[in-house]
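Recap for those who missed Tuesday's class. We walked through two folding examples back to back. For each one, the amino acid string is listed first and its predicted structure tokens come directly after. Nothing is annotated here on purpose, so try labeling regions yourself before you check the end of the notes.
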Amino acid sequence: MKVSYRWLKDYLALTTGPAALAEKITRTGIEVAEVTQMSAGLKKIVVGHILSCEPHPDSDHLNICQVDVGQDEPFQIVCGAPNVTTGQYVIVALPNSRIADNVKIKKGKMRGVVSMGMICGLQEIGFADSVVPKEYVDGIFVFPEAIEPGTEVYEALGMNDDIIDLDLTANRADALGMHGVAHEVAAIESLTPHFENIVVTESDVQTADQLTAQVADEQLAPSYHLRMLQNVTVQPSPMWLQTRLWNAGIRPINNLVDVTNYMMLTYGQPLHAFDADALMGDHKQIEVRLAKTGEKLTTLDEGEHDLTNEDIVITDGHQPIALAGVMGGLNSQITADTKNMIIEAAVFAPTAVRKTAQRHNLRSDASSRFEKGVNVADVQTALDAAAAMMTDLGNGQVTAGTVSPTNLVPTDKVIEIEADRINRVLGTEIATQTIVELLERFGFGVVNTDNHLTVTIPPRRWDIEIQADIIEEVARLYGYDNLPSTLPTGDMTTGALTTEQKALRQTRHTLEGAGLTQAISYALTTPEKARQFTLVDSALTVLDWPMTQDHAHLRMNLITGLLDDAAYNVARKQTNLALYEQGRVFLKQAKAQVRPTEIEYVAGLMSGERQIKTWQTTAVPVDFYTIKGVVERLMATYNLTAAVDYRPTQDYPEMHPGRTAAIYVGEQLVGFVGQVHPAVAKEYHLKETYVFQLDLAQILALPTSSVTAKPAPKFPEITRDIAIQVADQVSNAAIVSAIKAKGGAYLCSVELFDVYAGSHIDAGKKSLAYTLTYLNESATLTEEEVNLAFEKVVAELVATFDAKIR
């Protein structure tokens, strides 16, 4: 909410400056984002009167203007605006002036003609396009009334007004109107606000004879009121009204529409105006109902919307003419030809307004206020004030009476509270009379009966509901900085991580120690990406209100997010990648399941070179064994009781069928590791890429063994090397398992140190070389003991794998 300090002073006898007032407001609970003045940094910008305007002899779009700027002689200024003409009062930046973005305007020549400055549009002196009147968006601004030439423009345009930008939370919607802000500031400054009395002069014509209205369901619009004006004249608003609107971030349109926006800013009550003659039928009829599925409405922004039976619409008895509380329809807008009009003031169902605004992507100032709530006591007041001002600015007549098919009668809320409870909660010793005075500064009625307070809350503070709200009001006006600071009392509990938290933290440390960098991806994705790289079958989880269609489904894997991250990096020439992500996936056992189960996963991605080329090293690309080594290192940190096993698999269509292994702990599948299928990698514009994905929830639930430290061995080890030739399809894991089974009690490790296939090896065969290490921790091993155990291993390999000893 952008609050005009000058406008605020219309209601309060303020002596505190804007900056100091902003600090006080922030300290009492409403944050002030900033205090600005549009004229800051501008210099030598004045009002000019165009005395003559002639075409430039060497240009088809430039004009040479003689402009009275309050000097002894007119200034000659060359202007290219399409709407410049004789007699206009315009904005002139004089030579050596400063306009928006600190641009300096100098005396110069345009196509050989001297130009003494520049005739400006509003954007050129700092106004946003969104607040510039549409007729001046592509040209210079023309004042609607005569102003003394040479006068600085800042006063006429409201640019020297201080704007206090309030960053309001949803519960303080009462401050979305200037009256609400005035009440708040009055409490802070111990002042009494003064508001104008509304007097509506009505004609002899009865509104009820010209207009009828009905609300199909009172829940849709609990309070709905209409007034009618006849014989109005549509014209530009006076400058004072335009300046107040654009200082609040609203574009001026015309004198009638501007009044509805002005009343919204004044009371926080949105209004809407319909062209009565655009409604169908001789006798005008307004009906509030739910839309019918298939009905269409073109709104004021010229967007066409397909309505649903959840949208509240205003109709003329035949067709929709507005989305209730959101935006009016183009078919009933106020135009230059409007003569008779209907003004609407209402309270609409907040949830329905919010959902309609989201559904049609039509968030507006009106919908924002209806969603958060409006002051029921001001609905009729705002309507009457608008009718009175439109009579003044539009030269029309207000018909007698208001048509109100529904009406909410404003009532005060009464909250009982003990003064001792307020002090006990705040830790203070504030006198009861002081508490009463603080609450009365808010305009609350307070009756004190032996320190028992009966607090009466007016309808304008609908955020006050319970005793805690009363305590908060006392605290923020008393001053949070005046509350005593105390240490907490009671038994202290030492904080510690749970076993799961420790394991998750260790997972991150291990992967980062292996050279991987953490990535954080969106949990929302497309249905195609959600279904890829899944460890288990799951139904999709679809969002009801997605931000975009590409973020409408919850992920069921982490790898597609890493692939997106990798593609982003590769597009920026970063090709050596090592990333990991630890996060949750969302799985549903059945489509009917409402809430998905959140499962903790960890995934990694490696691509490019694991060792770059230097003067003394060669480049080494990432391969399957690089990422498998990372996984093995990670799995070792969990100290699982069962053995970890890697089994070739073709169960994942997005993975390379010959370079992918399923990861088992015992017989429990916990993940997979391997190369991304080349076709999938090509879709992401990636070269050879390797990934892994683990179900951390399953892994952390498995039995673990404790780690026992052992002293260094006292006796020497003995090693034996063996090279065997076996068939290609024989796996290293099977050979290692056979060696360990027959290796004897003293075999402590088996290491593969060479793999060879090629010349000197039979076709379909490969050579594997191992180092077997033997150790007796209680005595020195003899050659005879090692040789006997080694011979058993050799015999087992020959018998089991038809191995040939090399």
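Example two. Treat it independently of the first, because the proteins are unrelated.
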Amino acid sequence: MTMNGEKMPAADDRPTIKVAAVSWPGVELEPVATPPDTGGGEKPGRSRRGRLLLAGGLTAAVLAAGVGVGAYAYAGDVPRGTTVLGTELGGRSRADAARALRAELERRAETLTAPLTVTVGEKKAELKPADVGLAIDVDATVAAAAAADAHAVSRLVGSRTVEPVVTVDSARLEAALRKAMGSQGREMTMPAIIWTGTTPKPVYPKPALTVDTAGATEAVTSGWLAARPVTVPLVEKWPATTREEVDRLVTELARPAVSAPVTLTTDGGSVTIPPAAIARSLRFSADEAGTLTPRVDVKRLRAALGGKLATLEVEPRDAGLTISGGKPKVVPSRAGRQVDAAALGPALLAVLPRSTGRSVSAELKPAAPELTEAALAELGIKERVSTFTTRFTGGLSSPRSQNIVQAAKDVDGTIVKPGETFSLNGHTGERGYDQGYQDAPTIVGGKLVPGVGGGVSQFTTTLFNATYYAGMQDVEHKPHSFYFSRYPAVIESTIYWPQLDFKFRNNTPHGVLIDTSYTSSTITVSIWSTKIYDSVKTEYGPRRNITQPKTVYLKPGPDCIAAAGSVGFAQDAYRVIKKDGKVIKREKFSWRYDPEPRFICAPEPGA
């Protein structure tokens, strides 16, 4: 036999082929067997070859059928049988699938843009999808539809539904849910250990009552797609450090730490660190997760020891600025020779739990200033960019006024580098008697009571406004629960160690100098830097939801502080920042003031 001019081998010359039996629905095949050699008879040979051809043909048919089904299933970029939102995208190219999906979204536009009813805790609110960035990412959804399926067989003979890829602005959604949550929620109380003299006092953690952002996001996106109301429960979120751990730190570290002095020995001599200095320098700080960690603040230790270390070391001095004649004047830096703070802190922390062997050794090392004149010059602090003044009564002799002035002195001359975040609590530390603060009225539990450091909120508000009108980024602040007419509504801030802080971030390319000054009735904070905005102004919305105060009678006594009371209200304030004649930023600040009761220090009439 020939094919295309070539001679094919005779049947007897072909190699033996082993063919496995193939089953196919509806077809039965005889087993293929090799007959005995009959000495050249032709029929058995033809029968064998026929069966081989039959089996081979069926095998080819099976393979051809599989290839055909596979080609059908995988035609286009998206496998057939694939649907998204009820729309068949299978068998299409990615571009065609994207067009089909966009057409489906157009048909659903009214539903997808309709406000979504969300119940947060016990309060209902409506969320506009566009306000929280809810949208379907068409390209990402098509890519997911085109992706290979792990269950290839089901794709050959079945179908699959692909969920659309939903995008959402998590920050805006969280803000909207928190607004809907309103007064139902509460902030987390971070664990802490604070000092009253040499007595450690635990601050026990309390959980926040808030929205589970991850779970809420999933619920909102699912509800949006299904066009059904969403319920977002409030959950408790606990700090990482427990009450038991706080007690353990008090028992095993804080109390033993101040039980006796510690001897510090250097190559230049020795000094004794008394318990009072240990208390001022032993800090217990909680991170964002609420993990409480002890450390020795060597800078505070040095300040607490005062002149004791002066005989052993020379403190380096950073280059600084003072305001003279309406202009910044450079104060030169100076190198020093100091105890190695990086080694001293951990070494001292290691011996504080002990009752014996309370001594540490430290090396005196050259200490360069952190900020030199050259580095200071590069910060570009050359002009006053904002200033703010508030007034107080009582003159400089009142404890409240002295607290305001003390906070101003603590902060005066501080330089905040570009990108740095300034924390008022972090800068002053605990504001106690040892730090020069006195008892004055503070708001605790919704009423005025005596408390150390009362009045520092006025300095906080003054500093907040100075940085606000300088265009600095607001990181953390909380307005008072009651409205005081001496402060601008909404744009004001309280402070309370250690739970409430005021923080701002220098979000400019230039350094910032905080300059403070005071008179017998005013406190002023000015921010010096390089001016980059034309103006920063505040626009107020109207007051709303005005509520009247109630009258509360209190037990007369030295701790009772009367108050005239004030109305409660809600209000919005907008920071409007202009540059090159255009508004480049408009930020909304909102707050709700509780009505301050009219407190009367007398028995209730008729009681």
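Answers for example two:
Residues 1-67, 150-155 have pLDDT under 50 and may be disordered.
The radius of gyration is 39 Å.
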